[in-house]
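Lab notebook page, bench 4
Experiment: in silico fold of construct C2
Operator: M.H.
Input chain length: 347 residues
Purpose: comparison with the prior construct
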Amino acid sequence: MDIILHIGAHRCATGSLMAYLEGNAPALAAQGIAVWGPQRARGGVLAGVIPGPGPLSAARQCARAAGRIALHLDRVERQGARHLLISAPHLLGAPAAALRAGRLYPWAGARLAQVVAGFGGRLDRIVLTIRAPEAYWRSVIAMTVMQGHALPDPAALARLAAQPRSWQDLIAEQAEAAPGVDLLILPHERFAALPDRRLAQMLAPSGDPATPDLALPPDRQRPWRNRGPEAAALHRALALDGAPPPAPAVPWCPFTPPQRAALEERYHDDLFWLHAGAHGRARLATDPWPDATPGPDIFRSNRQAPAGAPQTGPHGVAQTGRIDPRARLRQRGQGDDIEEGRMGQAG
């Protein structure tokens, strides 16, 4: 039985992926695909794999978690599953904690090492979805504002844009924490609206772009879970916080243009590094768009959209110089990113 651990990242359409898996559970089970979602992973099976406060020592918590994981894995295998997908983004850490720390999941390497130990060497693949840092942080900030947290001040935003930690660093830490485990990276901009394609990549053997022995059900319902806040709600939350609301019909972004450019350049570096082989530490998923521009050309700054692709986002907001606007990717607005269209609506 292949065991695949999906660790997020947060704000990368994980909820939509889970909706697809839940909606097609019988069809997937018939093909030997079992799924442990975030609720089961966090609240039950993986409890204690990352020790927390309590009456039990850290060593005792880890030992009990390892035993529990082994029992559940054996049970699933006896039931005839050929593939087990475990989705547990919380293993990276909380995005709000990363925002407070001003760095991208600063404790992820140590946390993942504990998780790998808890599985006793049985993990076959770890899957991480990455996202343009400007869009990722904007999404995290919007959600924390909606939860009642203060908007980071300009100095904090400047530190966030200037800090050097990138997806490369996080991926390198994961590779070190999980030696010998296949590490698969999926860009959010290419896979967000394609949960069936994401699943096919997750299940494919290392180096293979497809799973010929599986007939995965197509994503017909296109659910969109945990979406970013509507523009009107975000305006109200920012007003309560004393921050100036975004201008109507302008996508909300807390970063200045130079900060956005720096974050975009960092993501370019990450993608080039992945396309070049990531020093053997990870592999980049096969691009799901057969007509895609070769290379890590996800951003199309100062260039026109390909022929036939719409020039505006899902809510009519102009997207000049934003993420590659593939027409099919825009069906749920995730070709650009969740907040860009919705936060740009007039409140």
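Observations: Residues 293-347 have pLDDT under 50 and may be disordered. The beta strands are 2-6, 33-36, 83-87, 125-130, 182-187, 283-284.
Next step: discuss at group meeting.
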